[in-house]
Specification:
heterodimer; A: 150 residues; alpha+beta; Sufe protein. Chain: A; four-stranded mixed β-sheet; 5 helices; globular; B: 416 residues; alpha/beta; Aspartate Aminotransferase, domain 1; Aspartate Aminotransferase, domain 2; 2 domains; seven-stranded mixed β-sheet; four-stranded antiparallel β-sheet; 40% helix; disordered N terminus; binds pyridoxal-5'-phosphate
Chain lengths: 150, 416
Amino acid sequence: MELADLYRDVILDHNRKPRNFGPLARADAAVEGFNPLCGDRLTLRLRFDGEKIEDVKFEGKGCAISTASASLMTEAIKGKTRGEAAHLFERVHELLTDDRAPIAEDLGKLAALSGVREFPARVKCASLCWHTLSSALNAGATPPASVSTE
Amino acid sequence: MNSILKQTPASIFDVEATRRDFPILARQINGKPLAYLDNAASAQRPDSVIQALLDYQRRHHANVHRGVHALSQEATALFESARERLVRFINAGSIREVVFVRGTTEAINLVAQSYARPQLRAGDEVLITGLEHHANIVPWQMLCEQTGAKLIVAPIDTDGEVHVQTVEAAMSPRTRILAFAHASNALGTLLPVEALIASAKARGIVTVVDGAQAIPHLRVDVRKLGCDFYAFSGHKMFGPTGIGVLYGRESLLEKMPPWQGGGDMILTVSFAKTTYNALPYKFEAGTPNIEGAIGLGAAVDYMTSLDLDAAHAHEAALLACATQKLSAMPAVRLIGTARRKVSVVSFVVEGVHPHDLGTILDEQGIAIRTGHHCAMPVMEFFDVPATARASFAFYNTFEEIDRLVAAVESARRLFA
Ligand SMILES: Cc1ncc(COP(=O)(O)O)c(C=O)c1O
């Protein structure tokens, strides 16, 4: 268990300067994620162009892991189709929870999240935004839904 | 001057000897000596408590209050002698005023359901303060839903203090119950208990004191306090989990209906009518947590074997040291700066989320609590999602505080 493995430079950078952070005009989906354990909250907003995720933004307060994970996620899914984003959710979920899962090269920066699996107490921090995404993809419609990691 | 001869009680208190009583304190965590600074969540157990539990389980276990055989009598004697020690420890009037429960949470629920529910009418008021633990909020909200009573909250100030005048201003002729913490788990604030109880008494308001955080740090004399109910948990005072005490004034307990039905709480049962057992057994339906009670009795013995005044003075010195060192760090903001506190320091660090801080400290073998501390309204009041909380027991050291401060500084640098 190495702290440096958890707080890699990519994570620290995305925590300091979260990408795609803020409100999103004309969102097609808005879902709130909540981690009751630490009080972290985030709202994810998506705008679709047909099947494609045209734009995505998030807002909220959270720890470095949850902020960086959300920031990395928005970068990774922008421009992807719903199906591709859903597939990515599955792969990241595996990355976070299965410590035998290989870390595929094509995950790019998302691979930086793999350090979390050595810290079981923090897996929920990293997965909060991904569960929120999954719920947004499944619901699709506007009324803010809510998802909790508990 | 004789000041050279004057030693502070803290220097008389032998921390190292006390630490040897707690086997867990010798543990290494992540290759570092454990610094256990999460005592407000649950305190560690001395060897004597562990031995009492073992001894009971290896030699004396049987059900209580029901058998004529030797083991049942031994178990009953141990169980009841634990109760007697608790009676003396808090200076209750008699064993009839000491009800074994699972903990503070169950004690408050018992009062809400058995005392308050039959008494309260729609429009009556239950008054609490702004710093309560969820265990002293939710049972009253449930009661209010059941009875149509209203929950009123007396606010705290920006230091996390509760003022008697504020509480009095929140009282009305309909106030029936005043429920408040003796000490706050999230902030450490010590409440002006005596004044609050006196004020409530003068108005005929029944008082319920949540003593979970006071009992490990103060000498509690329930009759001197004059409260109607006092609740606490064994695991916060160096005893086992799953056991705690509800103290209630006998005249009130006497009038209250049982809150759970079953064995042990009855005298006779027929299908037509059941007569209830005497106090405190009326409130102890079913086989109780026998080993828990025995372990708690051993924890009382342990605490009374210490020089408690010296132990408490040591805790006060730890609190002063941590407060001073943390508040000297520009990035640290203390949450809860009441003048009178138990040894709890809540804080936030600019640029570092408490959850990340918790992980970084854990890496150093330092255990603190991060989160909302089951006091979400307090977090809302101070406009923080969570805090980091270090809480000290008499077995903590100044060196552990130095390690805490150094680790906080390294976390700040990592995220800067
Ligand atoms: C002030 C206060 N009240 C109530 C409780 C609840 O105690 P328990 O969980 O032992 O029932 C706690 C424990 O966290 C507490 O600190």
